[in-house]
Amino acid sequence: MRMVVPRHSLLVLLGTALLLATFASFAHGAAVMSVDLGSEWMKVGVVSPGVPMEIALNKESKRKTPSTIAFRNGDRVFGEDAQTLGVRFPANSFAYLIDLLGKTIDNPMVELYRKRFPYYDIVEDPKRKTVVFRAGEEQFTIEELIAQLLQVAKVYAEDSTSQTITECVLIVPGFFGQAERTALVSAARLANLKVLQLINDYTAVALNYGIFRRKEINETAQYFLFYDMGAYKTSAAVVSYQLVKDKATRETHPVVQVLGVGYDRTLGGLEMQIRLRDFLGQEFNKLGKTKTDVFSNPRAMAKLFKEAGRLKNVLSANTEHYAQIEGLLDEQDFRLLVTREQFEKLCSDLYDRVTAPLDKALAGAGLALDVINQVVLFGGNTRVPKMQDILRAHIGQELAKNINADEAACMGAVYRAADLATGFKVKKFITKDAVLFPIQVVFDREGDSGALRQVRRTLFGAMNSYPQKKVITFNKHTDDFEFTVQYAELESVLGKNANTLGSTDLARVKLSEVAKKLKANTAADNVESKGIKAHFVLDDSGIFSLANVELVLEKTLTKGEEEEDGDESTFQKIGNTISKLFSGDADDKPTATTESKSTAGGDSESESPEEAEPAKGEETADKGASKEEEKGTGETTTKDAKSETNGTATGDEAAKNATAKPKIVTLKETIPSKVELTYLAPLDGESYEASAKRLSALDAVDNAKKRRETALNALESFVIDAQVKLDEEEYASCGTPEEIETIRKRCSELSDWLYEDGADADAETYEKKLEELRGVANEVYARHWEHNERPDALDALKQMINGSEAFLRNAKNFTKDVNPEKDVFTVVEIETLEKAIRNTIEWRDTEVAEQEKQPRNVAVRLTVKDITDRMAMLDREVKYLVNKLKLWRPKVKPTKPPKPEKTTSTEADGESSSDSKESAEEVLEQTPVKEEQEEPVVGDGSDKTEETVETIDPTATKKDKVAAEGDHTEL
Q: In terms of domains, do 496 and 399 share one?
């Protein structure tokens, strides 16, 4: 007889355990986010195990949040709450902050900001000369304000994923220079976030566009132009999509490369909104409703600005609309009909600038418009009909609107975040960005006449792809010297707006111990200096840095040294061969020299083809080397290569090689360098500590406020809930008249206290009052809970008794007395279970009868815990027998082979012997199968549980249900 119920229960418990283990593994998985911190709106993208790329919702369950922060009376609010507060107190609500990062107080962009928002009190940071907002007694640096917005983004992402987030990818405008980028990294650090990468907005959009069109990309380059008009700026970027084979891994991956960029950093929706605001203000002044100039009242200007933003959006879809504001100034209302034609007339000069970024991007890429596959729009203000008409007429084709204009950048950046973070595996999609502002090295060199002259060498030219590394060689300096790193050719790139980047100087590098190192290493006749090499890096965030500086020397080995080097070179050559196999350099030609590690440990940095062009990877700073030196170097290279090639020759070949030049090895010695940043220094040191302390204080205030609000709400809710419940018979019957009266009295006292003396109490007081009230009321609530839950607990006990009795009836068939071949259980075990069931039934019937005799307001006799304890006892008895049945196996009795029959002939003996053997073999093969088939089966007969591992694909926005084979589709 088959036993089903116990085995099924075990399988259910096992399945639950596996499910919990899966959830536990997900709970400890890493989650990352991307933040599109725009001038007007902030979007947050998240990816976590089990949750592919998605936009995190804010507390209002919206997909984007105003990039606004406001302070009032010690309170701090964000988003829509900050915008609402900003209408009443505009000087305390800060918005459109992103473009103020990394700028000194005298920057033209800061002056423009002051002109647009005259009610802000902006002062200068005395140490760093940066922007500081002053609101009453409080002062906030621009990095502190941005850091607080990033903290809010972090909260939204953590609420969405239910995981702690510490890593992110941040989106920046492509025209951000070194000062702006490092300032944003400092702000993220203040927000306790690690920046995996700063990605340009158009690059993020291009990546998002490509990952969902991967199948359309092939070995032939396809060109697209992405056009963005946001709140603050307008930009255009020409990119190419192409499949490229990696030389090292031999794998083919899609590559999106930025080829040309154009932008206008003051053309955007904000400028249109400002002009409409000023127009409405002028029209209100013309009405003469009040003698006060509306432009002199900050609150009135904030109201006009808000209405201008609403009106701008409405006029994008309607030809006319009314602007109306209640109580604009001196309690005077304002209502005015505005047509789209009037709005376009206000912005007529702005529309003349719409196509300039597009043309500049094409010029930078060196491409004509007819090779562009599509012009793709993104950014909120690309929805303006007039702007679309201008672009359509300019390019002579329809505009592509097949991406989410608001979220495309954020989704592309979160894909990149998943690629960079540990714990995720996504399909490779390589991005190559382009340098907008060239970077050069400037140094002084002594000429033939003895006079110093300034030399400039370009490191990263305009539209060079990055990330990449570059090396510059100084081969004429024999003493300590210094050089500077600065922007180059800004006038050709920025024109009249070159001063918006701030300082053109980026860093001053001072090298020391040059003469000392040279003297110490070139004392021998067989050592020659090959110059000082400086290694520079432009990382994937577009941030420039000096990696290291080293003195490079060539040592000509003597015959003894060469023999010693030859003895050691066998293993070295094997190591080099192995390393080439793994690095993909096995097909490279022999190099001129063999590099050896110097005593100072300075190693040269190799440049991969993806990081820099090999031909341009190293620039010679001092081009004064003579042709003879160059020729000599070339000859040495050739002969050395031949020497190494023929090193294993024997006989006549060895004799010929006896006249070859000695072997040359390369030595490297680190040169101490000190880098001094000459642009706006990032927030660091004491300034950073002070900012971090201020933000911690604000966080403490917010946490205390949140705790107080939670405690107050909990106390109010409990008081109201208790008063309502005591009016219901089912609760009132569970307490004595004295208890009910005490609770009512206490609730009445607390209700009066909350609206009088307790209105301003702290969180600790509220929590203490709530604990006291719970102590009075919980006894009544506990009785009600017991009476309410007891029927369900008794039903569960009844089901367990019935199941146990069914198991007992079947178990009796597996005893030695009933079925000798299946003696699974002993008589004592059967009697023990039978006794446990009988005692449980007797206990239940007795306790239920006694409990029903008692009133509801006395101590409970039969508690839910008593019932669950009895269930646990009975469950242990049944499980013991179930496990024994599961592990039991029948004893297999060996079958003796039959005796061979005697025959009278040799042939008959042979045949009989053969038949006997076959019969014996057949029995031996069948016997175990027969016994196994007779084995009792529990449940479905399956003892094995297949464990599946869920593959998390952060590139997918929708997951199809997987077939039985477990296959999945990865975008």
A: no
DSSP 128: T
Angle, helices 763-811/864-887, rounded to nearest 10 degrees: 40
Are residue 154 and residue 259 in the same domain, yes or no?
A: yes
CA–CA distance, 684 with 416 (Å, rounded to integer): 28
Whether 180 and 85 map to the same domain: the answer is yes
Q: What is the pLDDT of residue 108?
A: 92
Domain CATH code at residue 85:
3.30.420.40
The model's pLDDT over 35-88, given as tens digits with 9 standing for 90+, comes to: 999 999 999 999 998 778 899 999 999 999 999 999 988 889 999 999 999 999
Q: Are residues 412 and 548 in the same domain?
A: no
Please report whether residue 426 resides in a domain: yes
Is the alpha carbon torsion for 555, 559, 560, 563 positive or negative? Answer: positive
Instruction: Please give, one letter per residue, the 3-state secondary structure of 374-405.
Output: EEEEECHHHHCHHHHHHHHHHHCCCCECCCCC
* Whether residue 160 is found in the same domain as residue 86: yes
Residue 168 has pLDDT above 80, yes or no: yes
Q: Are 680 and 505 in contact (CB under 8 A)?
A: no
What mean pLDDT comes out for the span 117-146? 91
Range of the domain at 442: 437-556
CA distance 657 to 562: 14
Please state, in angstroms and as integers, the Cα–Cα distance from residue 615 to each residue in 314, 619, 630, 652, 876, following that order.
55, 9, 17, 39, 78
Contact predicate 527/555, CB 8 Å: yes
- What is the rounded CA–CA span in Å between residue 687 and residue 147? 14
Q: Residue 347 domain-assigned?
A: no
Cα torsion 594, 596, 598, 604 to 10°: value is 70
Tell me the pTM.
Answer: 0.75
Say yes or no: 240 and 213 in one domain. Answer: yes
State how many domains the chain has.
3
Among 853, 887, 921, the domain-final residue is 887
Give the integer Cα–Cα distance in Å for 722 and 294.
54
| 514: CATH | 2.60.34
Cβ burial, residue 853 (10 Å; 0-12/13-18/19+):
exposed
Tell whether 277 is covered by a domain.
no
Amino acid at 795: D
CA atoms of 641 and 593, how far apart (whole Å): 8
* Same domain membership, residue 443 and residue 398: no
Query: Using CB atoms within 10 A of its CB, is residue 683 exposed (0-12), middle (13-18) or buried (19+)?
Result: buried
Residue 667 lies in a domain: no
DSSP 181: H
Domain end among 825, 860, 887: 887
Upstream peptide bond of 467 is cis (omega within 30 degrees of 0): yes
- 399 with 527, same domain: the answer is no
**Predicted pLDDT at 619:** 53
- The burial of 243, by beta-carbon neighbours within 10 Å (0-12 exposed, 13-18 middle, 19 or more buried), is given as middle
CATH number of the structural domain spanning residue 705? 1.20.1270.10
Query: 615 exposed, middle or buried (CB, 10 Å; 0-12, 13-18, 19+)?
Result: exposed
Minimal CA–CA distance to 200: which of 162, 176, 172?
Answer: 172
Within 596-658, strands assigned E span: 618-620
Whole-angstrom CA distances from 854 to 43, 106, 734, 778, 943 are: 62, 85, 11, 20, 49
For residues 148 and 93, is the Cβ–Cβ distance under 8 A?
no
pLDDT 10s digits, 799-852 = 999 999 999 999 888 888 888 888 888 989 999 999 999 999 999 999 999 999
Q: Are 217 and 210 in contact (CB under 8 A)?
A: yes
Give CA–CA dist 452/491, Å, rounded.
Answer: 26
CB 358 within 8 A of CB 236: yes
pLDDT category at 675 given cuts 50, 70, 90 is very high
